[in-house]
């Protein structure tokens, strides 16, 4: 009985490839780690789909712990609830798209696209690997939605159905529209260049006069789709700006387009000249190219998630001793809900059972569960760990404490108006200057030669059309976005770069942002532990999934494991085990039966007692992130730093000791305090960046000028924010900020460059010397040189800042 | 030189054809997901067991 041996055996699960810790289940000559994995294999084997295992090695996901209650999809039978989640539905066929985060390899794609072989009522399915989505087409007379979801869940691909699926608008094809416009512009531009060749070589007299006329008319024909279709976004945007008495980059562009088009029509139809239509085509083509380049999006990330993205679609309601699964939207005040292990509390509610263990890691970033007593309020967003508990709803899900914060930060747009993009401010000055020059040139020529006056006026508008000017911003910002993405800092859109460059105040959340839960420091106080006792402790903590158990297990390192006959876990209290007639207890003070007072220290305590005799305690404190001291000290030179924490201020001393001292600490901050704190900073004129991780920061993240959510796994959970930072790249924050400022500098330099071109073009235009050839050369040349400059400059800066590396070959 | 009129017509027809093909590809979602097809093409097409090879009907010419 007393033998000590490493518990893991050599056998690996055929399905998921994990070590079979217990005796493997043998089936069909193969070994499985759990019934779930075996079940998946059985289903695949029956349907002759074992190719799944040949495409990738051990492609399955472990099915351990995948035993949930049977009726959890019952709400999918309610047509009122699920009506909105279909992509398409007619008399016989339904199409639906699921988000399936478990998709991870080519075998997954293969299996999900071969669902029709398992159930013939499924017509077909299509996987989008990058977005982790699968679209399934099925005949709803032969298979219900619930059965489809059940089938996926049996195979280990349970779709992630969230409340937001019910209200979300189905995929918009905005991106497709811009691409189509680019296609049209490219087609017209290319052909117009071809038909303009005789004009470029007009001295050579390649063709007779008839051809020239024909070519000009063809050019007019080709210009129509460009002016009336491809350019339409610019008209809308410019009109919008003018109506609000503002100026943006699109106003001078639209002015230029009109000048180009009308003047060219006049030249072609009355003067018999060629006009500048080919240059107009080129202008639009390059502009749209820049627009698409700037629209770099990170498809797997979502920045605009609201509370609906976290809450389940349905919950279990208990009434008159019967359980029913009802959609969350139908939950009313006073309803009694049953929340099982690992389930999310969907609304602010009061606990009816004796005790619950709520893990608020979504909310605060702290992963150690908090014990809650009967009658206490549990906030929405907490996750129950342990036995199922009954709650009664106090506030509707849409009005809970945390979702209120979300709705509170609504005035983000107001804030961002203060921060007008650089390009818009410059284009204001630019447009008025150009108009002034045009009028002056017109005034100068009108008394001398009326036709030159008209020509000078329009060519000034044409040549100064801010092609280069408006190309530099999208390309520089697009490059910056990509370089940030390579360094694992993902921005919501390009305008965040400019805001980032102007930030002067940084606000950090403490828990989970400055501190890292997995870098906890563990100390043991008390009587020395013998090697045997350590083995017993290791044996106990290995049986538990509680975060504190994991940390103690890590602390014990490669200690040999004692095989214990029985370990009992009292949820929220501790672990106990009877070993060789002695009762070992590990857990809270009450549980371990220790009468001693709480030591005067901060952190989580785990007490150890044998037969009721106190041996010692573990003190577990969350540690600072590895690079936090360096990051903070280098940031404190340039920025005003603030730290907000929901905790008591016990840790003030340790924090000030380890971090720079000129930081403003604020402890005891509730989520709405955090929001108000940022409001105050903003109203005092600071440009704020908030760095946080939990739902309790959601309000503050929205309120700040730039809200950055930090997370260990970018595709997982993060509150709504402007940017998502992979916690790996935490140490690069100073570089990111510096790089954002560099990219702003590059934009300014680019403006200088394009002003130079404009000055050159203008000096010709005011004298009435501009010819179509010169225009056709000058336009693309200035655009391309600006693009090349911004691409080179951003990459050089990115390499200097250590954000990207040259390929090592 | 008059042949150029014809050539221009042909070139425009060709160009428009490509434009239309581009629109069709766009509508078909060809540019929405540019990763998964690269994996999908490597899967074997296994013949379905249920479908037996049926002898093709021989065409008769009359």
Automatic annotation (TrEMBL), chain A:
Where it sits in the cell: the answer is: Cell membrane
Asked whether the UniProt record includes Cell cycle among its keywords, one would answer: no
Q: Where are the transmembrane segments?
A: 179-197, 217-237, 249-269, 275-293, 426-446, 452-477, 749-770, 776-799
Keywords from the named record:
Cell membrane, Ion transport, Magnesium, Membrane, Metal-binding, Phosphoprotein, Translocase, Transmembrane, Transmembrane helix, Transport
Q: Which SUPFAM superfamilies does UniProt cross-reference here?
A: Calcium ATPase, transduction domain A, Calcium ATPase, transmembrane domain M, HAD-like, HMA, heavy metal-associated domain
List residues of the Putative metal-binding domain: 12-84
Q: Enumerate the spans annotated as P-type ATPase A domain.
A: 312-406
Q: Which Pfam families match?
A: ATPase-cat_bd (PF12156), E1-E2_ATPase (PF00122), Hydrolase (PF00702)
The UniProt entry lists the main location of this chain as membrane
Q: How does it sit in the membrane?
A: Multi-pass membrane protein
Q: Which InterPro entries match?
A: ATPase-cat-bd (IPR021993), ATPase_P-typ_cyto_dom_N (IPR023299), ATPase_P-typ_P_site (IPR018303), ATPase_P-typ_TM_dom_sf (IPR023298), ATPase_P-typ_transduc_dom_A_sf (IPR008250), ATPase_P-type_domA (IPR059000), HAD-like_sf (IPR036412), HAD_sf (IPR023214)
Q: Which domain of life is it from?
A: Bacteria
What family is it from? Answer: Belongs to the cation transport ATPase (P-type) (TC 3.A.3) family. Type IB subfamily.
UniProt cross-references to NCBIfam families, sorted A to Z: ATPase_P-type
What protein name is recorded for this chain?
Heavy metal translocating P-type ATPase metal-binding domain-containing protein
Origin species, per record, is Algoriphagus aestuariicola
TrEMBL record, chain B:
Superkingdom of source: Bacteria
Q: Does the keyword Lipid biosynthesis apply?
A: no
Give the gene symbol. ccoS
Q: Which organism is it from?
A: Algoriphagus aestuariicola
Entry protein name: Cbb3-type cytochrome oxidase assembly protein CcoS
State which residue ranges cross the membrane: 6-23
Protein keywords: Membrane, Transmembrane, Transmembrane helix
- InterPro entries found in the cross-reference section: Cyt_oxidase_maturation_cbb3
Which Pfam families does the annotation name?
Answer: FixS (PF03597)
